[in-house]
Design brief:
With 682 residues, the chain is α+β, with helices and mostly antiparallel strands. The chain has 4 domains: 60 residues, Helix hairpin bin (Helix Hairpins); 233 residues, DNA ligase/mRNA capping enzyme (D-amino Acid Aminotransferase, Chain A, domain 1, 2-Layer Sandwich), CATH 3.30.470.30; 155 residues, DNA polymerase, domain 1 (Orthogonal Bundle), CATH 1.10.150.20; 68 residues, Rossmann fold, CATH 3.40.50. 37% of the residues lie in helices and 20% in strands. It has 25 helices and 24 strands. Strands 14, 15, 16, 17, 18, 19 and 20 form a 7-stranded antiparallel sheet that branches. A 5-stranded mixed sheet has the order 2-13-10-3-9. Strands 5-4-7-8 form a 4-stranded antiparallel sheet. The longest helix is centred in the first third of the chain and has 24 residues. It is elongated, with a radius of gyration of 38 Å. The N terminus is likely disordered. Bound molecules: 2-(butylsulfanyl)adenosine (IVH). The site of 2-(butylsulfanyl)adenosine has 15 residues, from strand 3, strand 8 and strand 13.
Length: 682
Amino acid sequence: MREFSRNKGLGGMNREEAKVRIEKLREEINEANYYYYVLDSPRLSDAAYDRLMRELQKIEGKFPGLVTPDSPTQRVGAAPLEEFETVTHTVPMLSLNNAFEEEEVREFDQRVKKLLKTDRDIEYVIEPKLDGLAVELVYLDGMFTIGSTRGDGVNGENVTQNLKTIHAIPLQMVKKELKKVPNRLEVRGEVYLGKKEFKELNRRREESGEPLFANPRNAAAGSCRQLDSRVTAQRPLSIFCYGIGAVEGWDFTSHWDILQTLRKRGFKVNQESRLCRNIDEVLEEYTKIKKKRESLGYEIDGTVIKVNRIDLQEKLGTISRSPRWALAYKFEAHQETTVIEDIIVQVGRTGTLTPVAIMKPVRVGGAEVSRATLHNMDEIEKKDIRIGDTVVVQRAGDVIPEVVMAIKEKRTGKEKKFVMPDWCPVCGSEVMREEGEAAHRCLGMSCSAKLKESIKHFASKRAMDIEGLGDKLIDQLVEKGLVKDVADLYSLSKDDLASLERMADKSALNIINALNESKNASLEKVVYALGIRHVGEHLAKVLVDHLGSMEKLTAATEEELTQIREVGPEVATSIRKFFQQKGNLRVIERLAKAGVRFEQPVARKKKDMEGKTFVFTGSLATFTREEAERLVEERGGKASSSVSRKTDYVVTGDTAGSKMDKAKELGVTVLSEKEFRKLLGI
Ligand code: IVH
């Protein structure tokens, strides 16, 4: 077919030929659409689809008289409207009675039987209840003509242009090899936005500073009620059709029949819908759908149970705008609204201050919720959440509750903005927020919230290596108030320890011994154990190699610190800040009093390199050149920059060059970095 347009070109095409080609293209595009948007299983590549679409647009551009409202080119949105027209539904769009308990569902079944004066099982259809926007699509002789919102059930808004942009809505019902299309068919369904699509939409809105949608429902409703349908066209909306209004020219005997027919005619019908022989089967299916809830690509808020036979539906009728033949059996809501009564600050294990909303308790997602994390200051500012605000809270599955948004329309003017404290609410130390970071942190070392974590770190194998002082024990020590900072560990008595749960005398004694032993840990381990931000094992060693004592380290200025290679300004600030905290200095003093080593081990200072000359070449992995040279000099050796006959050792890094050749030439011993460390005994 494409040959045709290539050979003759558009110019050579007459109206008749164009009409034939247009028909063919529309058919192919509609079919591709159907597979992609309704069946969710694409048959054409995006490129092939675009090619067909472009060709159709081109021909229609050339022959505007051939453009029809059901052409796939008409899905892109049209010029904005001033306002929506009102559409009166031929048959009112009803609402549903709700049930939350199995008992209520059984009562519904009993009521149906009673009204129908029967003891026999009633057949039902159960369908997922989508959380979106209810719409009606009017098809005249198979062509989508008017689309409207449910509105108040009697009158809705004419949103035809917007609905046309939804690819899952057929502009033309499928006609092929089936019985004649009805003169009039009103199809009803729920327009929705998938979970993934919703997240992506909100992500883009956040990026461009637009207000976020609280949930997919609001996003779908908002998108459908756009006066400019070109905006709607940008939103990846879809629809599930679940029923009909008026119909002329067709007859249905059951609801299941309606669903199957709609599906055959190109409408998207939910795959999870089931025909059940009785209420027990309905309840089984309900459980299955509920289990699937989180894994579905769209939000559902329950199920809808409908009497299957149309004649029975008619007999049952309607009462106060709800059919007596249907029931919404709902799940626990994932979202609720409540009021933020206060915002408090929680200090996490790493010293991060997390603002937490204290809310009027609400049941959401199957649990009572009265607290929700607000993450950090950026988040509060972005969402503009204030104390006193009415907010939407959300809790899906096992996910922790979160405040989705504030409902600004409910503000009274009495709401208060939250301010992050400058001082830690737990220990009173200074709170710092580093540039480019979202979190505020408490700098205090003995902050009880940070305490457990810092003690765990202090006692860990790579730090002070206090055997037997495990996580559970530390938790108990802190909770009982026996330990308020790491220095307190060294004042623990055997009796203190023995008083703890599951602690035998012997184990208590072992821990006291382990604590005493830990006092001999090397200074670099002690520095690492302090848990200064950014100071890991390696940096602790670098600091000790350069400064040699705790005294020098605590006194070092940022300037002095940044002179050490590997210590950047950020690390220097963090170290300085740490030692500026009076609380931290007091802990260090008490550690010293307890006998923890604050000097480099004496062994290091042995003059065992007396008279030896070293030359370093290439870059070393675990030392800077200066550090290596200092180590040698401390032990009485000498570091030189050039290799001569007097050189005893040439230590080579990764890219040793001419010095190594020279060493070999002169027969000087060449050491790898590993061998050098071995020689020093480190
Ligand atoms: S049937 C008389 N089926 O729920 C039948 N409604 O609370 C009325 N809804 O306005 C509708 N999924 O927006 C039906 N599978 C489903 C549904 C469904 C969602 C919505 C619909 C309706 C509301 C009634």
